[in-house]
Structure prediction request, 428 residues.
Amino acid sequence: MHDLKQLRDNLDHIRTTLGRRGNDVQWSDIQQLSEQRRTITTQVEQLRFELNKGSEEVARLRRAKEPADTAMAAMKQVGDRIKDAEGTLRTVEEALSDVALRIPNLPHASVPVGADASENIEVRRWGTIPSFSYSPKPHWDIGEHLGILDFDRAAKIAGARFSVMTGAGARLERALINYMLDRHTTQHGYREVITPLMVNRSTMTGTGQLPKFEEDLFRLKDEDYFLIPTAEVPVTNLHREEILSGDRLPLRYTAYTPCFRREAGSYGKDTRGLIRLHQFNKVELVAFTTPDRSYEELERLTAHAESILQNLNLPYRVMALCSGDMGFSAAKTYDLEVWLPSQQQYREISSCSNFESFQARRASIKYRPAGGKKDAKADFVHTLNGSGLAVGRTVVAILENFQQPDGSVEIPPVLHPYMGGVERIEKE
RNA sequence: GGAGAGGUGGCCGAGUGGCCGAAGGCAGCGGUUUGCUAAACCGCCGUAGGGACAAAAUCUCUACCGAGGGUUCAAAUCCCUCCCUCUCCGCCA
Prediction:
């Protein structure tokens, strides 16, 4: 969310900078509602001042055993006027915050300007694309042939866009989760955390999923709980409504969670395989920093996610998302895209973003600067997160990139200890 | 699910209608004292929004005692609803 004062004073600038991303914002309402809020607030405060003074006068008269009826009657009227004005104020504030909570974040100056994914900029590329003497198979063929993926039974017990993994497939998924967590906790300094997988409305609002994207979320029928679409949600909200001490920053967390997404509006896309599911596993990285160090942190965090791909020897590229392709809450985003031989293209496997103070403002996460100054004012932290990595898509990349002509799949060496020594998945 | 007790500042804890943004203590910050440390003593010590000032310091107004309503001239205090925590009983991995 934007600072309301900033919003009022720089409305046109914000609107211009957002461009197409601000198309569905009710800009005209903001101006009007802000003005109303200002005048009514002043009015209410003046009335309250009058009421407070009047009530003190009543108290004084009564102590002096003097009649207070006139003053009481007058204050009764003031009280009624306050009640009226407060009613309007509440309506105005609710309307204003509803509009304001639907305004996306502003892109950082370094973000390329563009309309859609075609204008994203490739930052770097890593690894060697494997060559095959035959047409490389898609991962669902490989997985079903090996007997480790079972989409038919997944559809039977749940429906479309679910998966069942068995045997070495399930073991591979679990190996990846453990490997990623171990690496981030022991090599990169993240604290592991396990959180609830369903959260309340305030939490979803804090990170920006609500109010605008409710249709993307699974919601429980009889409770106001939502299934998390990413661990970013519960982990970032760990510190909602807190003031952190500056010398503890940056705080870095990593969490493995399943993620649940409705995937509304993606009918027909990636209907086969593990790419786009209603439920998938992800290891997430989350960081809280001071504003002056958040872009440095974004590079670090992205490198941490990259290191997983490098150690698995999976070829990938890093894309700087253009302004038109970035998510709602992000100020800057790098996508990591892994090479998928069967599709002959790079596909997203991680998304690393700096949200600057956008989420911190919504969730009220502040820090008090460290170092002496007693009057140092609390300020909003910057929050970041990135996938480190999407586990299912990593399985896809392994199956496809390391498939062998005989239908087996080589397991990257760093995973061998996590696979109980298994170096290759073969048909049972 | 049933019965009961609670939610007050960074923490502990007083406060049952007005002089309470809130005693006292701890922690923190600044200072005095001190060979050093400690102790003692003095002062400061919440968040947010508005106004005055060119700005800072400062002054001032408003709100906030879990959340939202209500009663009242006046609510931390009384009433209602909700959320959360704790204790006991039941059920349960």
User: Anything to note?
Assistant: Residues 5, 38, 41-42, 44-46, 48-49, 51-52, 54-60, 62-63, 68-69, 71-76, 78-79, 243, 372, 374, 378 of chain A lie near RNA strand B (CB under 10 Å from a C1'). The mean pLDDT of chain A is 92. Chain A has two domains: 4-100, 117-425.
